[in-house]
Specification:
The chain is α/β, with parallel strands linked by helices. It is 44% helix and 15% strand. A six-stranded mixed beta sheet has the order 9-11-10-14-16-15. Strands 4-5-6-7-8 form a five-stranded mixed beta sheet, covered by helices on one side. The protein has a three-stranded parallel beta sheet with strand order 2-1-3, covered by helices on one side.
Length: 484
């Protein structure tokens, strides 16, 4: 029997190195015992793991390439609390040498356990990201934000980088019974577990947070079963807002009735300004039935609640251009600049788009430009809002507006700019690069010309942008020839 010692419960790198040495030595799964740290004399009678140094004896087993999927699943599963996880992973690794398709056999007991454990860790990581609540205390260096969390699995190490990205400009500590994470705005460190009494029970912002939570609670959308599924009861004891839930649920019926009886909220002045701007654009494009329909559709879309994206956006960003346009461009979604301006393609990607159109000989003023998704999906990161790709449900919910635009405009040529637009117009969830520069069938417009979104050029490494931009212009020139 060989002994493999790991530094901590979620030590994937340590496990991988030990597994590599064991495989090289030809150690079968039942011949390896796994332990964490220095457990006193438990394995005193067992042989130590052979050295992995370059001077070690040549391996008795040839090396083999591990499937990427196994590595990804193993990195998650090793964070599970199951004590047999290390042995399970090594057993699967041993079996993969002879059966490269093993991970596709979902009825296999080991594969089923691996996938179930990985799924559980993904969920636990998501819950940690959602339910950690920081409270402010003061120390010698100023403000320190401390949170208490009780995970069921060893997810702190793999989840802490999320909080580094999100709260990079503040000092914080996340205390758990298993391990604690500390960020000093320069370095992420991990230390021993803590007790709940080590974390503050309240802070000066608590009352403001509770007031905010009570006001955003929507009784008309209350589904207790779904709420408990997304916010399991076991987390409630550490959430300050949980103290309000029972009262809010009990009074939901009365609050909903009061909302129904109340007068409708007046349309904000900002929405009126946007609508007036769209009306001017439509009137400038010339007469036609569509010019009357588009402003009405835009006004209707300004109050869209078909999916939750409106909650994190400034406003609906509707299409813009002539109602009798021969050419329609469909982008993916508005970006930060578009969300603030209320107009499509006015940010950095819009500048690339306009320049490329001019080089290809296409007049943007004669086209109609819109997006598959009308609200900006984003993730707050400090003072910035980072773009997030819309999911299938959000694309489907917003497709209704795109269908109405197409009914009014009836374009002869429609262009899908990027994967989200392609999916909305054709239902295809992949294959953008294979279809690029070609026509793809669409149940909405017959055929769609496919190319990349100009924002993809901006995301390229600097040395690749010139070539990527030239390829985009080439696509648009091909479109211009098709329209000629």
């Amino acid at each position: 029997m060989r002994v493999a010692a790991l530094a901590h419960p979620a030590d994937f790198e340590g496990w991988r190195e030990a597994a590599r040495v064991c495989l090289a030595a030809g150690a079968r799964p039942h011949e390896v015992a796994w332990r964490i740290g220095e457990e006193p004399d438990l394995f005193a009678a067992l042989a130590p793991l052979p050295s992995a140094a370059p001077s070690a004896a040549p391996p008795t087993e040839p090396a083999f390439r591990v499937p990427r999927e196994f590595v990804e699943l193993a990195q998650l599963a090793i964070c599970h609390a199951d004590e047999d996880r290390f042995a399970l992973l090594y057993r699967l690794l041993w079996r993969l040498r002879a059966d490269r398709d093993l991970l596709g056999r979902i009825t296999d007991d080991d594969v089923f356990r691996l996938r179930a454990m990985a799924k559980m860790i993904r969920r636990e990581r998501h819950k940690m990201e959602a339910f950690v609540r920081f409270r402010e205390i003061a120390d010698a260096e100023g403000s320190l934000f401390v949170a208490w969390f009780e995970p069921e699995h060893h997810v702190v190490e793999i989840t802490a980088p999320f909080f580094v990205r999100r709260f990079a400009s503040m000092r914080w500590s996340i205390l758990t019974p298993l391990v604690s994470a500390h960020w000093n705005m320069k370095e992420l460190r991990f230390g021993p577990g803590a007790a709940k009494s080590d974390a503050p029970s309240h802070d000066r912002f608590e009352e403001h947070w509770l007031t905010y939570y009570a006001n955003i609670f929507n009784p008309a959308r209350l589904k207790i079963g779904m709420m408990k599924s997304e916010m399991p009861v076991r987390y409630w004891k550490n959430l300050p807002e949980a103290a309000l839930i029972e009262t809010l649920v009990r009074e939901a019926g009365k609050r909903e009735a009061a909302m129904i009886e109340a007068s409708p909220t007046p349309e904000p002045r900002r929405a009126q300004i946007i609508l007036e701007r769209m009306k001017k654009t439509a009137n400038a494009a010339g007469p036609g039935a569509g010019h009357n329909a588009l402003p009405g559709l835009a006004q209707e879309a300004s109050g869209c609640r078909r999916c939750p994206l409106w909650e994190g956006a400034t406003q609906t960003v509707f299409g813009e251009g002539a109602a009798d346009a021969r050419l329609m461009f469909v982008g993916e979604q508005p970006g930060d600049k578009e969300d603030l301006a209320g107009k499509p393609f006015v940010g950095p990607a819009g500048e690339v788009f306009d320049r490329a159109l001019a080089e290809a000989g296409i007049d943007r003023a004669s086209a109609y430009v819109t997006n598959a998704v009308k609200h900006f999906k984003n993730e707050p990161r400090g003072k910035r809002r980072l773009h997030k790709t819309p999911d299938a449900g959000e694309i489907s919910a917003c497709r209704w507006w795109l269908e109405r635009e197409i009914e009014i405009i009836r374009p002869q040529f429609t262009v899908a700019l990027g994967a989200t637009a392609l999916r909305s117009l054709t239902g295809l969830s992949g294959g953008l690069m294979n279809l690029r520069g070609m026509l793809a069938p669409s149940d909405l417009v017959g055929e769609v010309f496919v190319t990349v979104h100009p924002s993809s050029i901006l995301r390229m490494p600097p040395e690749q942008r010139e070539a990527a931009y030239a390829a985009f212009v080439a696509d648009l020139r091909k479109l211009a020839r098709l329209m000629a």
